[in-house]
Each structure stands twice: as C-alpha cells, then as structure tokens.
Design a protein that fits this description.
By secondary structure, the chain is of the alpha+beta class. The chain contains one helix and four strands, in the order βββαβ. It has a four-stranded antiparallel beta sheet, with helices on one face. β2 and β3 form a beta hairpin.
Length: 92
C-alpha cells in the first residue's frame, strides 16, 4: 500500500475491549472474536494513521496479537478485480 492511500486493516488485541473505546481508535469497529480477543477493523487513511493506532495500543498496555491488511472493498478495485495498489508502475 502506498503511504498516502487508505486501506482496510484488522488489528487483533488480546482480551476484551469495551466498544466504548471505538472513538479512541478513529472509529474502527470494535468487536470480540470467539476466543475473547478484540478485533479493531476498518479503513485507515494512511501509514501515519496506522502507526498512530498502533501507538495507542502500546500506550494502553494492550497486547497486539496480529495486524492484517484486508482486501480492498469492491469500489477500490480495478476492472479485473485487483486492488489498485497491486498494479505495476508504468515504465518510464
């Protein structure tokens, strides 16, 4: 992902986190998975914002279990169904 493009991420944190924390995580959806861990999922505007979210996880003393880049929504894919960011750069 280019540093200036939004992308959808899922951050998994050990243990439950109350959904009231959602505004503190820039509006990412806050859910609990079947193992009792917290999933923060949603669009992140750029790499700087992603680092800010990870810093918040650290500052709260939460245990980060995983960070996943999820497939782009259909409106961010080209006609072949590929993510725009997967296109090769033009020769120049």
């Amino acid at each position: 992902m280019p540093p200036h493009k939004p992308a959808v991420y899922q951050i998994t944190i050990q243990g439950p986190l109350d959904p009231r924390w959602q505004p503190w995580f820039d509006g990412l959806a806050v859910e609990t998975d079947r193992d009792g861990n917290t999933l923060l999922t949603g669009e992140v505007r750029d790499q700087s914002a992603l680092h800010g979210l990870l810093a918040r996880v650290r500052d709260l003393g939460l245990v980060l279990l995983s960070l996943r880049l999820l497939p782009a929504p259909a409106d961010q894919q080209d006609d072949r169904g590929e993510e725009e960011s997967s296109r090769p750069l033009p020769a120049g």
